[in-house]
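Run log, item B.
One chain of 505 residues. Sequence copied directly from the ordering sheet:
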Amino acid sequence: MMKCATAAEMRAMDACAIHEHGIPEIELMRRAAAALQHSLFAAYGKRRRYGIFCGCGNNGGDGYALAEMMADEGVPVMICARGGTLSRSAAYYAKRAADKGVRIVAQSAAEEVIAHSDVLVDALFGTGISRELNAEDAALCDLLTNSGRHVAAVDIPSGMHADGEWMSAHTVKAERTVTFACLKKAMLKLPQREWCGKIEVCPIGMPAAAIRCADPTLVLDAQAVRGMLPRRKPHSHKGTYGKVLLIAGSLQMSGAPRLCAQAILRAGAGLLTCMIPEGIHAIVASAVPEAMFRPWPMDDNGQFALDALPDETWLRSFDLIVVGNGMGRGPSTRVIVQRVLDSGIPCILDGDALFETGKHALLPAQREQTVIVTPHLRELEYLSGVPLAQISADPRQSAAMLASRYPYLCVVAKDDLTWIMQGERQSVNIIGNDGLAKGGSGDVLCGIIAGLYAQGRQAYESACAGVYLHALSACMLAEGCDTMSILPHELSECLGKACAKLRRG
């Protein structure tokens, strides 16, 4: 289980590991260095020349320990040592590195280290920084950023406050950041996350009791999500895996129901009925032959006709209702959403349903069955009433506020990070790529969540697993093509491989 931590929480975790579980500080440092070395060798290889920039504290100690290990491997390595008195653990590994023949030069020789290195490792300050950089340190950080070399940061780029409260204009811009035990709070914010580059969180054997010192937010990873996937039964039938109704589409937007329906079935739902306007029936049905269809009358705008809407009795014949994808805005969408909510059936509201729900305050004060909402930031503004600028600055806070206001809601707030909230439970997804920044991706995500939810898992687990699988599919597609070429329907097609990869571990 991966969590997010502030600087104070990391200090508490270290203290717990050292004083309550008897793990010496130098052992934690050795573990961090070993994880760092493994990550760097995987990314850049052993044949590169490494220049490690070490501070005086324990972040620098990680760098000195790394240098010792690299020397043992016969890897060319130099250290640029920032001036000052070393911490006890840093001094311990500095001596060991020197004893192994690692060349250690002063900060004034930083350019020499850069000239002789292919990869630069920033181990200057880490999470302990609590002040703005002085002129000398700022110049050193700028040298790393502008070096033209590969730059990897240890735990967090130097010059960045670990809690995201501020970031120096001279913060090291890293190509990748290898952080330990937990994600750091600053990494969940912009522009800090961009300065971190590719973030890798490495476990270092922190005891479970120490991890509990961290923020309760779960950072989704393969281990956590694997346990959230539905378990298929050898002796089962289509009715075992849920009866889903998708109410979606309009004459102008036939793609949305197609993408959502395909994803629902790819994610494992047993039976799917699509209620769509009659004008797009043939288009959608030909793309999803596995689904059943109920074409409904259309109005002059190509949307559901207001005088021919489903009654609650029919709606209650389903286990799950998905409503909103490409429906268009207007009275018929509002009435349908209201009837779905009044039916008491578990449901997912997406797209235009979210606009109508927010505009007309359709969410009831109480509801027994869960409602999953999947807003992007503008839709979150409709639902929460919080100004967009405020939401953009801190989507987590706005999503949490909405979830606390309506205890039956599971909120999936979509941005470059996706937050999942229900009650006191909250998770964040940090994987994915810009290939998801394309119309239709949200319809696929909605469908994946629905397909998982229909199989009997809890709403929160289904939302977490759906978000992660959606992003993992994008990552897998990017292995074979440029991200700009990823199409939303390919996410569904890749879903089976993503699930298989996740289950294998």
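Observations after the first pass:
- Residues 226-504 form a domain with the UDP-N-acetylmuramoyl-L-alanine:D-glutamate ligase fold (CATH 3.40.1190.20).
- Residues 25-44 form the longest helix (20 residues).
Flagged for discussion on Thursday.
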